[in-house]
Write a structure and sequence with these properties.
7 helices, 2 domains, three-stranded antiparallel β-sheet, about 65% helix, about 180 residues
Length: about 180
């Protein structure tokens, strides 16, 4: 369904019309309380959040968004997301709000690029959206969901190891091919 920007009062009936086809009596929405706007109608909260962020955000990773990101494997993409997660976590623990926010923005942008990758519009999409939502909550909420940061470190580390193994296998294959 199309995501709709709500920047003025909206009738309950209109919200009902938006939500009924997908969720019955529920409507998914993301609200930017600072700007007084809300996005409704997405399949996932992450879609609506991305919609709001895309309205006024310049890409940090413009070279990756230009196409290079979409040539990387899921392991490489998530290992990069994990690097930014670790960076954001480190800056948050050190109390450097500015550096934390920049690392968080970079991490969320890489998550969004991964979610936008058409290759993952399958069984992986739900996991990607949910992990993005949980990680953001873990880093930004005063009362985060009960997953530990160590769990996410291990989650992203597994992708880093897999990406390294993929790279090593590709190098071995090209060296073997060069010998022939």
């Amino acid at each position: 369904m199309e995501i709709i920007l709500v920047d003025r009062p909206i009738a309950r009936q209109r919200l009902k019309e938006i939500g009924e086809p997908q969720f019955g009596t529920y409507v998914k929405a993301v609200v930017d309380v600072n700007k007084g706007i809300m996005a409704v109608g997405g399949d996932f909260h992450a879609d609506e959040e991305s919609f709001l962020l895309d309205r006024d955000m310049k890409l940090i990773h413009s070279s990756l968004a230009g196409g290079r990101w979409f040539t990387m494997s899921i392991a490489e993409q998530m290992a990069n997301v994990g690097s930014e997660y670790e960076r954001a976590l480190r800056w948050k623990e050190r109390g450097n709000t500015g550096y934390f926010e920049h690392a968080l923005d970079r991490m969320l942008e890489l998550f969004d690029l991964t979610i936008e990758d058409p290759r993952w519009r399958n069984h992986r999409l739900r996991e990607l959206c949910r992990v993005r939502e949980i990680v953001r909550d873990q880093l930004c909420s005063e009362n985060p969901e009960p997953w530990s940061r160590a769990d996410f470190k291990d989650y992203f580390l597994a992708f880093g190891i897999l990406a390294r193994n993929e790279r090593d296998r590709a190098l071995e294959a090209s060296a073997l091919k060069a010998k022939q």
